[in-house]
Amino acid sequence: MDSLGFKHHDHSTCISGGVAAVIQSCKEAGLQFTPVRKRVLELLLERHRAVGAYEILDTLREEGLGSQPPVAYRALDFLVKHGFAHKIERLNAFIACAHPGDNHSPAFLICRSCDAVAETATVAAGGRLGQAAEETGFTIERTVLEAEGVCPNCQGKPE
Amino acid sequence: MDSLGFKHHDHSTCISGGVAAVIQSCKEAGLQFTPVRKRVLELLLERHRAVGAYEILDTLREEGLGSQPPVAYRALDFLVKHGFAHKIERLNAFIACAHPGDNHSPAFLICRSCDAVAETATVAAGGRLGQAAEETGFTIERTVLEAEGVCPNCQGKPE
DNA sequence: GCGCGACACGTTATACAATAACACAGGTGC
DNA sequence: GCACCTGTGTTATTGTATAACGTGTCGCGC
Ligand SMILES: [Zn+2]
Ligand SMILES: [Zn+2]
Ligand SMILES: [Zn+2]
Ligand SMILES: [Zn+2]
After folding, report:
1. Helix residue ranges, H only, chain B
2. Most buried of B37, B80, B130, B147 (most Cβ within 10 A)?
3. Cα angle: B120, vertex B54, A139; to 5 degrees
4. Which cellular component appears as one GO term in the record (chains A, B) (predicted)?
């Protein structure tokens, strides 16, 4: 599975493709894909890993697109809200979505050595937990599923 | 399942039992269960919900057990490291473990209305995600599984 | 007894993450 | 013009977490 993420790939098409897909989605949904939002999405796609809000903000500041935290957070909130990016709770950081457009409940594999993050899909309230929830009458609305470990490229590396 | 957590129960035994179990574990493993660590565990058990580090710290300060953030974080790190408590990444908060002693990979049901948190068990690197990881050669060491929704007691409540 | 390392604890300072609150600017509909 | 909505700019503040350094204590080998 290519989109699973630890492989090398043509990164420029990865960015342009991602941006194009989001432009399309916004057009269809009547959302405003403003310059700040676009730039933040590009930054996430460029980095291709989880990025902290303040790292985003530093870049925006250098480029004159905004210098205060709310600027970055508002753009990130927009992207997350509409499924174009995800927040990695474990890292308090953000990453571009690997399959924008789909309505999905993502899961992540996080490498603790190189910080790479791969997105994959889960069954919405699936498996064991969904079962336990149903038994007790708990209604699941959203799940966070993040696995931490070592990616194939970092296997065997010291520390 | 009683330990799943949204039901009423005898809370005093819940605390004393939890502390006793941890004392026992520490004795066996040769760990130091110091006053600060004990008090923090008690606080988590008393609250019986996710508690922020600074809320813990406030109480420690009132009781003269420490006044600076590292005091609370060190105790919490100890408890988490040895499986006596867990961090809820989604809330940036901590909760006492419901089955201390067992070596387990916990999952949580978080009520967005009343903030109750129930701990349940998962298969270690289970299901879909474990499969995807194996296929790509990713080694999972730890998983975060947190479901957000509405608990049975809050179903139908306004807002 | 003495030196030493391991570990817990105390304290200062700082970094990083997130939001509240208010002002302003541009469109759109009437 | 005017009300309304959405996005942006800015100031200030709160919340979360760690770096770095010093102190005290205990157990161990000598
Ligand atoms: Zn996604
Ligand atoms: Zn890696
Ligand atoms: Zn547990
Ligand atoms: Zn509830």
Report:
1. 11-29, 35-47, 53-62, 69-81, 127-136
2. B147
3. 30
4. cytosol
Which residues pair with residue A110 across a beta bridge? Answer: A117, A148
Cα B76 to Cα B69: distance, rounded to the nearest angstrom: 11
- Kindly determine whether the C-beta of residue B100 is less than 7 Å away from any atom of nucleic acid strand C: no
For the record, the structure tokens of B119 come out as 């701990």
Q: How wide is the angle at C-alpha B45 spanned by C-alphas B5 and B89, nearest 5°?
A: 70
Q: What is the DSSP string of A76-105?
A: HHHHHHTTSEEEEGGGTEEEE-SSTTS---
User: What pTM did the predictor assign?
Assistant: 0.90
In a domain, B157, yes or no: no
* CA B32 / C1′ D30 distance in Å: 27
Compute the 3-state secondary structure of chain A and give helix, strand, coil in percent, each to the nearest 5. Answer: 45, 20, 35
State, as a whole number of angstroms, the distance between the CA of B15 and the C1' of C18.
33
The C-alpha of B11 sits at a distance from chain A's nearest C-alpha, in angstroms, of 20
Say if residues A146 and A50 touch (Cβ distance below 8 Å): no
Number of domains chain B is built from: 1
Contact A148, B105 (CB under 8 A): no
CATH code of B100's domain: 1.10.10.10
Whether residue B82 is contained in a domain is answered as: yes
Residue B103 lies in a domain: yes
A26 is in an annotated binding site: no
Can you tell me the distance from the alpha carbon of A95 to that of A45, in angstroms, rounded to the nearest whole number? 8
**Which pLDDT tens digit goes with each residue over B20-74?**
999 999 998 989 999 999 999 999 999 989 999 999 999 999 999 989 999 999 9
Collapsing DSSP states into helix, strand and coil, what is residue B116? coil
The model's pLDDT over A77-130, given as tens digits with 9 standing for 90+, comes to 999 999 999 999 999 999 999 887 667 889 999 999 888 999 988 765 556 778
Asked if B155 lies within 8 A of A143 by C-beta distance, the reply is: no
